[in-house]
Amino acid sequence: MTGSLTFLSLDDASEVFAVAMTDGALLPVYEIAGTKGAPALLFGHANGMAAGSYGPWLKRLAARTHVFAFDARGHGGSTWPEGRLEEVFSVDRMADDLAAVTRAVAARVGGAPLAYAGHSLGGASALWLAMRGEAPRWSAAMIFEPPIFPPPTSPLYAAATEKQIRLVEGTQKRRTHWPSPDALAERLKGRGMFARFDPAMLAAHCRATLKPAAEGGYRLCCPPPVEGFIFKSHWQAGSWARLGDVSIAVDLIGGDADVPDNDWVSAALPEMARQIAGAHLTQVKGAGHLLISEQPEFCAHLVWQHMAAL
Description:
- The protein is an alpha/beta fold and 310 residues long.
- It has one domain (15-307): 3-Layer(aba) Sandwich (Rossmann fold), CATH 3.40.50.
- The chain is built from eleven helices and eleven strands.
- The strands form two sheets. It has an eight-stranded mixed beta sheet, with helices on both faces.
């Protein structure tokens, strides 16, 4: 392991290395070696989660794929510089990080095909990178539930705005200290969207997002002000107006807009797909915004299906 990483959200990867950014941020990258000669896949996680939140799913993917995943700045085992949130966690910073991690992984796999899959924040960062015309040459891009906020002309705008306000405010009330990951899992189990989580995925998420605290117990890896700012920055980024600038072929994968407690993202995806040239949309029946953690086996099947041509 390189760099000064002190916590790993995915503690049983085949190998871990760090990507250093120009502002001093350090991002852990986890390699899960798959079938020899198989195409490679880089995965980017959702806001408030970490690479290890998807550990069982990533290992499932490795049965047919050479898997890499990373902790975004502000999450998991990453470190980041002090400074204004607007500078350290901007939409552009997150996209720059994804580009740097992609280059590092591409160098490791040589000439093998490299696909990308991103969930929520990980998907929005990929689309923002593509909107800038700087997207890496991924062989495929699978974007799960990207939170690209609808415009004022959309019938979803009012409800989405209300939900985002509640989301940002609720983030600031997160309990930051827990006696153990099991205590967090017990708290989340059966509540809201977590009620649909696969049990192994819920346990992995709680282990990946809590790190040992100096005073004892465990503390959230992603501080509430950071998580809240990232939600707010993507909400106010104006990404929707730039969807026509997306420079890569995209497979959009979303949840079911009819799930009672689901977010606005699933409902916005059909129109989003129409705004991106060549985009293909799949929506998973009965799944919410955290669909990978809810239906890991089916989502793995979708990834393998999209990568089959590689």
